[in-house]
Design brief:
Blueprint (H helix, E strand, L loop, with lengths): L1 H18 L7 H10 L1 H6 L2 H17 L6 E2 L4 H14 L12 H8 L9 E8 L6 H13 L2 H8 L5 E9 L2 E9 L27
Parallel strand pairs: 1-3
Antiparallel strand pairs: 2-4, 3-4
Helix pairs in contact: 2-5, 4-7
Length: 206
C-alpha cells in the first residue's frame, strides 16, 4: 500500500511539473520568461514599433492633438503581451496565465495603488508580407477602422504610449499601452483606477 501511494505521489508530481509548472507563475515571472526567451529576442520588431509611433503621431497632429511620447517603462509590458499573444495564436487582453489588463498593469507597477488612465490596443497581421512600414500601416489601418480602438489612438487622456511588436513564423502581433499623466495625490497608496474595458472588433483586432 505504501509503495502504491508513493508511486501515485511521484506520478502526480511529474504531471504537475510537466503540465502545470507555469500555472503557479506570477505575471511578472511570466512576462520576464516571455521577453527573455530565445524566440522573443529574434522576434521583436523595433522597426515596426518605431513606425507605429510615428504613424500615430502623424495622425494625432493632423487632428490638432498633441503627439504621444514614448513610454519606455511600459515597453516591457507591451512586448510581453505581444509575445504572449503570439504564443496563444490569438489577439486579446488576457495573458496565457489568465491575467487581464488591469491585473497585468498592477503587477508590473508593484506598490503603486493609484494608476494613471491606461488602455490597450492589440492587433495582428497574418501571413505578414512587406517591409516594416507596410506592416505598421496595416496594423494602424485596423485600429483606425475600429471606433473603440481609434478612440484610444486619438484620446486626449493619454500623453505617452508603449509599443511592443513581434514578427515570428510569418505573423505579426502588436500591442500598444496608452498611459495618461501620473495621478497626483497626497497619499502613497490608494485604490487603483481600472482601465476601460474593450470589446472585440473584427478579426485580428482587440
Amino acid at each position: 500500500m505504501r509503495l502504491a501511494k508513493f508511486r501515485v505521489a511521484i506520478l502526480l508530481a511529474l504531471s504537475l511539473h510537466a503540465g502545470g509548472a507555469y500555472a503557479r507563475e506570477t505575471y511578472v515571472q511570466l512576462a520576464t520568461r516571455l521577453v527573455a526567451s530565445a524566440d522573443a529576442q529574434k522576434a521583436f520588431a523595433p522597426g515596426i514599433e518605431a513606425a507605429l509611433l510615428r504613424l500615430i503621431n502623424v495622425h494625432r497632429v493632423a487632428l490638432g492633438k498633441k503627439p504621444l511620447s514614448e513610454a519606455p517603462q511600459l515597453q516591457f509590458a507591451a512586448r510581453a503581451q505581444a509575445m504572449d499573444l503570439q504564443g496563444q495564436g490569438k489577439v486579446g487582453h488576457v495573458s496565457s496565465g489568465g491575467h487581464n489588463f488591469d491585473s497585468r498593469m498592477r503587477a508590473l507597477r508593484d506598490g503603486a495603488m493609484v494608476l494613471p488612465s491606461m488602455a490597450e490596443n492589440a492587433a495582428r497581421v497574418s501571413k505578414a508580407d512587406g517591409d516594416d512600414e507596410a506592416l505598421a500601416r496595416n496594423l494602424m489601418a485596423q485600429w483606425l477602422g475600429s471606433p473603440p480602438h481609434r478612440q484610444e489612438l486619438e484620446s486626449a487622456d493619454y500623453v505617452a504610449v508603449a509599443t511592443g511588436v513581434v514578427h515570428l513564423n510569418g505573423h505579426v502581433y502588436a500591442d500598444q499601452i496608452f498611459v495618461g499623466p501620473e495621478v497626483q495625490t497626497n497619499m502613497n497608496r490608494a485604490a487603483p483606477i481600472a482601465p476601460k474595458a474593450k470589446k472585440p472588433s473584427g478579426q485580428g483586432l482587440y
